[in-house]
């Protein structure tokens, strides 16, 4: 056999030996003996061989891409298109974020009076449905053309007493709007000076809670000023009014925390004294008596002193104090949990935004306010709170 034939034969034998089955070539010596050899699996490449093959493939691909004109052009175009698309998307996202950020602001940060922010307040009629049902009361001094707009737990008792003492007589009436029944009275009251007082929202809420407990306790004592607890809070009311409020500070605090975390979510109004100030003070219909100004509760004495001077009541030298009532409910506010304080701030977000009050230090950064269009057809911007909290028992 010549060398060429021998090489071809060896090659053929090699291929056959690497198959799954051993095929015995014809005319081969010792073929029967070889046929008894067990079938063998293909040899596997070792790790070094595989790595070399991968390197060769990568080099070939890179070389082809770099030096072949048509592939280089396509690659460049694809990269450019992707870069443009990314730029456009990024710019759009940045514009949206800029617009949104431009409309955001922190509570208490506007250079506006409390009346101005209240007049621009958007009140969601679904979210604040029951707060919008609280009564709107006016206390009118026709002789002095003054109207005090009631706001419970913001100096309302002291304000009514001062009005009655300094500017009598005082006629308590419900809100007056221009309609067939109150046309004349509405036109008359339009010329009067209408004012009210507001209070820092968290302080207002805590004071309202304590007043609610006092009214519940009086109900159980059959006092005419008592208020019956709502059905879903009767067990809580019974338990909390039986606490030793003089000596059980921890029990009183824990009852308050339980009320906030389990029983009150800012939707239902268990008592008028815990309703929001914004929903009470903003007119709910058009053509009703509107406020001329809003004062802070801390300025009450100064406000009435100024009114006395304006109406030439110089013979009055002492501002009377509000009627003192026995309120045994003292809450250890510094030890109230941070989680409860945060929930209170979230529930009162409307008052913080619409009355332009700064958040307490412990609530810094947990909510914000924003400007929103009144409608798609209007450019008028209104204020609404942005809060992660939403009443869980809304219907």
Quick take:
This protein has 395 residues and is α/β, with parallel strands linked by helices. The protein is built from 14 helices and eight strands.
What can you tell me about this protein's structure?
The strands form 2 sheets. Strands 4-2-3-5-6 form a 5-stranded mixed beta sheet, with helices on one face. The longest helix has 35 residues, at 69-103. α3 packs across α4 (69-103). It has a domain at 114-386. The protein is α/β, with parallel strands linked by helices. The chain has helices at residues 3-17, 31-35, 47-67, 69-103, 114-119, 156-166, 183-189, 201-220, 234-240, 249-263, 277-281, 300-310, 338-347, 349-354; strands at residues 104-105, 137-141, 146-149, 171-174, 193-198, 293-296, 368-373, 381-386. 44% of the residues lie in helices and 9% in strands.
Low-confidence stretches: 2-42, 69-98
| Fraction in helix | 40-55%
The value of Rg in angstroms is: 41 Å
Shape: extended
Count the beta strands.
Answer: 8
Figure out the total of helices. 14
Topology as a string of helices (H) and strands (E) = HHHHEHEEHEHEHHHHEHHHEE
Structural class: alpha/beta
Q: Tell me, rounded to a whole number, the average pLDDT.
A: 80
Strand content: 5-15%
Biggest sheet details:
5 strands, mixed
Strand order of the largest sheet: 4-2-3-5-6
N→C terminal distance: 99 Å
Features of this protein?
single chain, 395 residues, alpha/beta, five-stranded mixed sheet, three-stranded antiparallel sheet, 14 helices, extended, disordered N terminus
Helices and strands in order:
Blueprint: H1 3-17, H2 31-35, H3 47-67, H4 69-103, E1 104-105, H5 114-119, E2 137-141, E3 146-149, H6 156-166, E4 171-174, H7 183-189, E5 193-198, H8 201-220, H9 234-240, H10 249-263, H11 277-281, E6 293-296, H12 300-310, H13 338-347, H14 349-354, E7 368-373, E8 381-386
Parallel strand pairs: 3-5, 5-6
Antiparallel strand pairs: 1-7, 2-3, 2-4, 7-8
Helix pairs in contact: 3-4
